[in-house]
Amino acid sequence: MQLICRRSILWPLLLLLCAPALHAAVLPEDRMDVLYHRYDGGGMDIKGPSVLVRKSFADKVSVNANYYVDKVSAASVDVVTTASPYTEERIEKGIGLDYLSDKTLYSVGVTASDERDYIGRTAFVGVSQDFFGDMTTLSLGYSHGADEVRRRDDPDFSEDLIRRSYQVGVSQVLTRNLIVGINHELITDRGYLNNPYRSVRYLNGGSFAYQPEVYPRTRTSEATALRGSYYLPWRAALHGEFRWFEDSWGIDARDWSLTLVQPLSEEWVLELRTRHYRQNAADFYSDLFPFQDAQNFLARDKEMSTFRAVSFGATAGFQRRWPGMPWVDRYGARLGVDLYRYDYRDFRDLRVSATPGEEPLYSFDAWVTTLVFTLWY
Amino acid sequence: MLADICRVGALLAVLLWLSACSLTPPAPWVQPYERARLADPIMSKDRDPAAAAYLKHVHQSRERSRGAEGSAGGGCGCN
Question: Fewer CB within 10 Å, N- or C-terminus of chain A?
Fold first, then answer.
């Protein structure tokens, strides 16, 4: 619970399961992906497998299922300064269904995430429609999440969190080489939004002391993303994205990314990518409050602070036909490595003894590794 | 500024939708037989869905922003 920001865990997998809703009116490919993932940085070691299976029937219906595991070993700066290192495991399962009718694709899906102190449930419905000679796609989606927050050290602690998300997206073919799109998403939360283990610090004489974080019980956020994909003359693709974000807690964020996909041969493909992210702190964030109960809402979670993150990554992979296996069209594998650098502007490293408020600013590097095996059938 | 962008985007989406429903659609200026490059798998944002979803999970676990992370869609009428 301390390690991962629970509010966000379900979304990537939900989007994965519901990806067809955000695409043109075609069913996704029949495939099975087996992923091994690892995140290593900032005292956190998170790894585990994931399996995604998609199968279509009669060119009308496609079903998908996903199984995902996070094995966590946590000794982050937050953990070692206010608690003890710990290990835990999170298992997430999801199923989804897509139904294609002419140029309209209907999608539904559910996911369930379970660990000792957090239970998450999310359902999604979406529709996608092609028009203007299939040059334009409009996608609409709604998801509803109902979570339960618990504490490992308090069996009587139980809080609810309800999340609603509204999504709209339009993509447009502009030329034979260029497709662009815009997505907008409004998310509202109501309920317990704290991490029950996190604390803020405040000045207490010549030193500092801790008290629990206090967050508002509602949050509304809006994000808008512009994307474009361009086919380069030598058979390569350049993908770009820019996203704006703001929420009712006063957080503003921007990020942009570029990805170059370069085939090296008929079988091998190399991908290079970079991503730059920055955000400002929430209105009620402070690294060091002047006194206890200094304001109604209190936060010192570093994810709520002002910081920048920059990453560079590469993936190399291949695909081959598998003529000896009648039920397999082809198979492939990909290895990806990304290096992230996080620089915090108002979150200090309390592992260093110094006058309160004069500790060095915190920063860390993280390596992210993905290894994927895929069968297309 | 973001709110203005959102409002304009939503308005454009609604106008596009109403146009599609009530007006004669304009002829596509990129014909289906001209979309081979757009149909190339390297142009797909979902060529590696499991790894892409995991990287989004990494971002959301370390950052407070969220939403609008899905791809904007194909829409190339390639199939």
Answer: C
Are A133 and B28 a contacting pair at CB < 8 A?
yes
Enter the pTM of the model.
0.88
CA A261 to chain centre: 22
* Other C-beta atoms lying within 10 Å of the C-beta of residue B46: 18
For domain A101-376, the CATH architecture is Beta Barrel (2.40)
Q: Give the mean pLDDT of A167-186.
A: 96
Predicted confidence at residue A346, as pLDDT, reads 96
Q: Which residues contact A216 (CB under 8 A, 6 or more apart)?
A: A193, A248, A249, A284, A297
Q: Which residue in the set B29, B42, B55 is minimally distant from A368, CB to CB?
A: B55
Rounded Cα distance between A204 and A254, Å, is 36
Q: Does the CA dihedral A198-A202-A207-A212 come out positive or negative? A: negative
Q: Which positions ≥6 away from A166 have C-beta within 8 Å?
A: A141, A142, A185, A186, A187
- Confidence (pLDDT) at B22: 56
Q: Do A15 and B70 touch (CB under 8 A)?
A: yes
**Distance from the first to the final alpha carbon of chain B:** 38
Cβ contact A330:A376 at 8 Å: yes
pLDDT digits (tens, 9 = 90+) for B21-43: 555 656 788 998 999 999 999 99
Range A313-324 average pLDDT: 94
Q: Are A339 and A377 in contact (CB under 8 A)?
A: no
Of A265, A220, A207, nearest to A246 (Cα)? A220
Nearest chain A Cα distance for residue B11, angstroms? 11
Q: What is the dihedral of CA A79, B65, A145, A196, to 10 degrees?
A: 20
Domain ranges, ordered by start, for chain A: 101-376
Tens of pLDDT along A325-353?
888 999 999 999 999 999 999 999 999 99
Indicate the pLDDT class of residue A211, thresholds 50, 70 and 90: very high
